């Protein structure tokens, strides 16, 4: 890959640009509807040149890293413009809508639906960093609908970024699972931050009393609303399901605390400690 176009120069797009410059020595072209993002990405050396969508006619790969509500339309526009050998993939947190949109496109085989599980609470080109993807997981959906050579290119590219590639046949299943392990976490963080801000009117008190536990739990509440609003709405069905399960557990916990049932409180927390072994892969 000698030429790569990245559409969307925020945290993910910018960090991919940095890594791909380092691992592939490709010339990176930037496309973004925010002129300030383009200027900043050029100033920081994230991209080689700022340009427009027409550049996709000339490159070897196109990476779409815009908010998820814009991905289906832009992906179709890109597929209309590229030649037969160009790889196209998006890095959105939801996959069903974009896969549905491109399903019948003549160049569906050029497109690979992926989701690199990586990020921080920061946004914009200034948030782009090296090693964001190191030792993280990259999910590839509906690989059977993509050209085998395009899949091989994606696998090779993300292996160079030191990511573990995993495959999921169904984009719909991807969105269901990610609602629980990612989207619900962000909602929980935002709502905890909102609750504390509403109860603790003295912001200085929040700062003075907040421990590391609170800081780590509300870290995701610093995430960009422009990114997460369309994610929550696009994955509405799965998020509502996960929220109902979460709210049910909160109500149950509220009830046993109301009843001062120490044994039940202890048992729930003890059973939930199993999450340590799930996340680390080390059995207790």
Summarize the structure in words.
By secondary structure, this protein is of the alpha/beta class. The chain has helices at 11-24, 35-43, 71-81, 96-102, 148-160, 171-199, 203-209, 212-217, 225-234, 236-258, 262-272, 275-280, and strands at 3-7, 27-31, 49-50, 61-64, 87-90, 111-117, 137-141, 164-168. It has an eight-stranded mixed sheet with strand order 3-2-1-4-5-6-7-8, sandwiched between helices. Helix 5 (148-160) links the parallel strand 7 and strand 8 (164-168). Helix 3 packs parallel to helix 4 and helix 6 (171-199) crosses helix 10 (236-258). The radius of gyration is 21 Å and the shape is globular. The N and C termini lie far apart (45 Å). 34% of the residues are buried.
Give a summary of the structure in a few sentences.
It contains twelve helices and eight strands. It has 284 residues and is α/β, with parallel strands linked by helices. It folds into two domains: 3-169, Rossmann fold (3-Layer(aba) Sandwich), CATH 3.40.50.720; 174-280, 6-phosphogluconate dehydrogenase C-terminal like domain (6-phosphogluconate dehydrogenase C-terminal fold).
